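testing teh design pipeline on a random one, pls ignore if ur not involved
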């Protein structure tokens, strides 16, 4: 069994193991229990019933959180010519063609969002072994393969709170939706938009309940079990 700190164990004692909490209750409690010396990230973890061995049951999507993620997002864009100029003007942190491809191929991945224009995809295909496992490879399914005319919008969304999500190999979806310093209402808003996006991506092949269990936690804190029915029903006003 892993050993936890006294602070963690004290927080865990406040959580009822026999109950599930409403989302707003869980958020209020996690904010109250967040006592680290830094601004902890608030996360939600959803165990789904999807069978990810089948491609049609893998869940992957993207959404933009209305109150952002509370952190600086570094955006990289693989582009050249006029598209590269657009990306720089829109505030991308790293923009380039062959030079940037070579840098990433050597193992450098100091960025949070990777974008590319379609014209350059043939060049970056070999970067999948570096970027794929980190979820940074541009992909049309997540809207990170971008036409030049849309670069400004996508870069601004990425900086503001664009969040990608997908099932991992154990069929769990992990999502960040703010910081412990956020107001509870802002965290509820972000969680609502995230859950709405997840439910929209529910595979048609999944019958019955889609989410088996759910927990809200902070970077350094214990997980709080959340009522699944309420979570699945959350929709933006």
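output:
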């Amino acid at each position: 069994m892993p050993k936890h700190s006294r602070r963690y164990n004290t927080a865990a004692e406040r959580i009822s193991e026999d109950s599930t909490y409403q989302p707003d209750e869980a958020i209020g409690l996690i904010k109250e229990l967040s006592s680290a010396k830094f601004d902890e990230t608030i996360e939600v973890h959803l165990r789904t019933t999807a069978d990810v061995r089948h491609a049609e049951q893998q869940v992957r999507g993207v959404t933009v959180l209305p109150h952002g993620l509370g952190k600086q997002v570094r955006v990289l864009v693989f582009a050249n010519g006029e598209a590269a100029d657009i990306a720089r003007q829109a505030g991308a942190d790293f923009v380039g063609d062959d030079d940037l491809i070579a840098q990433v191929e050597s193992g450098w991945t100091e960025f949070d969002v990777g974008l590319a224009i379609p014209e350059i995809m043939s060049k970056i295909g070999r970067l999948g072994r570096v970027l794929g496992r980190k979820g940074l490879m541009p992909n049309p399914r997540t809207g990170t393969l971008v036409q030049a005319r849309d670069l400004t919008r996508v870069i601004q969304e990425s900086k503001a709170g664009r969040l990608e999500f997908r099932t991992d190999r154990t069929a769990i979806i992990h999502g960040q939706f703010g910081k412990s310093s956020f107001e509870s209402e802002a965290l509820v808003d972000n969680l609502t938009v995230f859950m709405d996006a997840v439910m929209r991506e529910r595979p048609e092949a999944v019958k019955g309940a889609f989410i088996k269990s759910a927990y809200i936690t902070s970077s350094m804190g214990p997980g709080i079990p959340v009522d699944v029915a309420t979570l699945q029903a959350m929709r933006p006003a």
